Structure formats: structure tokens, C-alpha cells
């Protein structure tokens, strides 16, 4: 909820795989029933990290770049509408994230866990043994406390940059010309300044460690934006917009799922941020031309872009999970498809009801 879903997946995946390293991998001679249970459980853990990061990111504006792009385009295309604030989006996004989280838990339990799973894992994940290892770690070191303090400060600064129209955040001190990226860079710079307390002259972060980060994910995002720009400059966006004009005069319960599915299909083949930059301008112009409230199309498009659960190409988080070797594309499709259906259904119910109260437009007209 508080950091980008890709960064969250990168941070949590080593934790998950560290637990899974205790478990036996399948031998060349084939797997017995116990090893099969362990293998399926390993899939559930990796898929759980990938999809939980994406679902949690829906709940707040800082959880994913899609929500930030939505806020920017909303204010640019519809300045007369009430702005989407941190609190207003969280009021809408958190209930949806909770529903999807339950759907994820149920799906993973049904597909990858059975009555014998606990028995198969008991020999490798003994609670008493894990508690002893935790106690051996000892208290938090100075470096750990400092990183936690920087991270906590980052969350506070994110949440308080803009509050409400009546209660301005600290962003007004800088004439609201700073963004979430500014805060992130500032707090990250502190990691290169604060000493780690272990060795003389060493800091919490240095460039040698920073170079080992997965910069290929950044390149992947950039490639997605390039593809989205190609959609616009080639005229493909106009063709797609004309193809959606059949929504003129359609009821809300048709507009919302169609827009969500349209965005949800595109996002499986390019990054969610790139999909958002592609479809939101399209939906903004479409909302004006067919005279429906912009929230119905733009929020549907933004949420649909985040339902990238089927293929590794849909999100950098998916690539992080896929690269562990524990899951296959077949596993992602089998788990992601029910989640995608649950997401579309939840949005179809929440947007015309809760969304109409939060974002306005109790009727569907602009």
C-alpha cells in the first residue's frame, strides 16, 4: 500500500524464497506425494507475494504508478471535477483491495493447498525452530533502525504532502511543485549519507550495492511507455476509440466492465503504467464525446490496467516472481484469471455505488 508494487515485490521475494529454500526441490526421479505438496505450496507463496503486492497497491495513490497517472490525467482533462485526493482514493481503493485479497487467498488455497499440506510442511517449517532462529538474530541493529526510520518518514511525507482542500499539506511550502518522486529521491539520498554504524566510513547504501539493483525492470517500464507512445503516434488509439463508441447510451453496468476488460486485455502485453498512459486519454475523450461521467471510464481503465495477472509481460512484479523458477505461465494464468474476473465484478459493483458518492456523478452524465 505504501511503496510501489514492483519495489515491494523485489523486497519481499527474497524473504519468500528464503523460506522456500528450507523445502526440498523436486528430484530428477520424480516427486512423491509429499514433494508434490511442497512444490504446490512453493507456487502459492511466490504467487501470493506477486499478486498481494499488486492488490495492495490499488488501495492508495502511492501504491502504484497507475494511480498517480490517473490523478494527473483526471486534473488535466477534467479540472471542473472534484480532484482525486489521497483520502478519497483510499476510501474507494481499500475496500476493493480487501475483496481482491480475500479472492486471492481463496484461490491459492483451492488450487495449491490440501488437507495434507500442513503435514508435508511440518518437517521443514517447525514453529519452535523458526522461533529459535528469530531469537538468534538478536535486537535490531543501528542500520536496521535507520532504514526503518527513513522508510517511516517517507510514508509520512507521502501521506501529508496534500491532505484536503481545507487542510493543505506540506506541499504548499513549495507551491505544490514537488511530487512523490521528489520525496522518494530526497529520502533515498539520506541512505547514502547516514552511516551504517558497522564500519568506519560506510553508509547505509553505496553505489556498488545500488548497481546490483534490477535496473532491467526500469528499462522494461521505459519500453512500455515507448510502446504506448507508438499506439498514439501511429493512430491506433483513434481506431480503438472509434471501436468503443458503441458504449454511447449504454447503462452503467455495461460501461464499467467493458472499459475495465478493454484496459485489462491491453495490460497483459505491456506494463500497467504504459497501459494507463495509453487508455486514459482515450477514455477521457470518449467520456466527453458520449457524455458519460469521466469516472466511469477513467477509473475503470486505471483499475483494469492494474489487473495484469496472466502473463509475465503484464507487470515488472510478474517478472520478478516468474524469474524465481518456482512458477510457470500456466500457474499465473490459472491463478490470475479468477482474480481478474473477481476484479472486474468488484469494480462493476463498487464504482456505481461507492464510487458515485466519492467521485460524484450519481447519474452517469458529465
Structure, explained:
There is one protein chain. The chain has 366 residues and is mainly alpha-helical. Helix 1 (5-20) packs parallel to helix 15 (316-322), helix 2 (33-57) runs antiparallel to helix 4 and helix 7 packs antiparallel against helix 8 (180-191). It is built from 16 helices and no strands. The longest helix has 31 residues, at 329-359.
Quickly list its features:
SLC13A/DASS, mainly alpha, 366 residues, single chain, membrane, 0% strand
Calculate Rg over CA atoms: 22 Å
Give the SSE order as H and E letters: HHHHHHHHHHHHHHHH
Q: Output mean pLDDT.
A: 82
The tally of beta strands, per DSSP, is 0
Task: Classify the beta-strand content into a percent band.
Answer: under 5%
Report the helical percentage: 55-70%
Poorly predicted tracts of residues: none
How would the global form be characterised?
Answer: globular
Task: Report, as a whole number of angstroms, the end-to-end distance.
Answer: 31 Å
Number of helices: 16
Structural class: mainly alpha
Could you give a short account of the major beta sheet? none
Blueprint of the fold:
Blueprint: H1 5-20, H2 33-57, H3 65-77, H4 86-112, H5 117-121, H6 127-137, H7 142-160, H8 180-191, H9 207-210, H10 215-233, H11 236-243, H12 252-266, H13 272-290, H14 294-306, H15 316-322, H16 329-359
Helix pairs in contact: 1-2, 1-15, 2-4, 2-15, 3-13, 3-14, 4-16, 7-8, 10-13, 11-13, 12-14, 12-16, 13-14, 14-16
Amino acid at each position: 500500500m505504501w511503496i510501489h508494487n514492483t519495489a515491494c515485490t523485489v523486497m519481499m521475494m527474497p524473504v519468500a524464497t528464503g523460506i522456500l529454500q528450507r523445502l526440498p526441490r523436486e528430484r530428477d526421479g520424480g516427486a512423491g506425494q509429499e514433494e508434490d505438496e511442497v512444490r504446490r505450496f512453493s507456487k502459492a507463496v511466490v504467487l501470493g507475494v506477486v499478486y498481494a503486492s499488486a492488490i495492495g497497491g490499488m488501495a492508495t495513490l502511492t501504491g502504484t504508478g497507475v494511480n498517480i497517472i490517473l490523478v494527473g490525467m483526471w486534473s488535466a482533462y477534467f479540472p471542473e471535477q472534484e480532484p482525486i485526493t489521497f483520502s478519497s482514493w483510499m476510501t474507494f481503493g481499500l475496500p476493493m483491495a480487501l475483496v481482491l485479497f480475500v479472492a486471492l487467498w481463496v484461490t491459492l488455497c483451492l488450487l495449491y493447498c490440501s488437507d495434507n499440506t500442513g503435514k508435508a510442511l511440518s518437517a521443514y517449517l517447525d514453529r519452535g525452530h523458526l522461533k529459535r532462529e528469530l531469537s538468534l538474530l538478536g535486537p535490531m541493529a543501528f542500520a536496521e533502525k535507520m532504514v526503518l526510520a527513513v522508510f517511516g518518514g517517507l510514508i509520512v511525507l507521502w501521506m501529508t504532502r496534500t491532505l484536503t482542500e481545507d487542510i493543505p499539506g506540506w506541499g504548499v511550502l513549495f507551491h505544490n511543485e514537488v511530487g512523490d518522486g521528489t520525496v522518494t529521491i530526497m529520502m533515498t539520498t539520506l541512505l547514502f549519507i547516514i552511516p551504517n554504524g558497522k564500519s568506519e566510513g560506510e553508509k547505509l547504501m553505496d553505489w556498488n550495492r545500488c548497481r546490483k539493483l534490477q535496473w532491467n525492470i526500469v528499462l522494461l517500464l521505459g519500453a512500455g511507455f515507448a510502446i504506448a507512445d507508438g499506439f498514439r503516434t501511429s493512430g491506433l488509439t483513434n481506431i480503438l476509440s472509434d471501436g468503443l463508441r458503441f458504449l454511447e447510451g449504454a447503462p452503467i453496468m455495461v460501461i464499467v466492465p467493458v472499459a475495465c476488460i478493454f484496459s485489462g486485455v491491453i495490460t497483459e502485453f505491456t506494463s500497467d503504467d504504459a497501459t494507463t498512459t495509453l487508455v486514459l486519454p482515450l477514455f477521457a475523450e470518449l467520456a466527453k464525446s458520449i457524455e458519460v461521467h469521466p469516472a466511469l471510464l477513467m477509473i475503470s481503465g486505471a483499475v483494469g490496467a492494474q489487473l495484469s495477472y496472466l502473463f509475465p509481460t503484464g507487470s515488472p512484479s510478474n517478472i520478478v516472481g516468474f524469474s524465481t523458477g518456482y512458477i510457470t505461465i500456466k500457474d499465473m494464468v490459472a491463478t490470475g484469471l479468477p482474480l481478474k474476473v473477481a476484479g472486474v465484478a468488484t469494480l462493476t459493483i463498487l464504482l456505481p455505488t461507492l464510487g458515485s458518492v466519492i467521485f460524484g456523478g450519481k447519474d452517469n452524465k458529465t
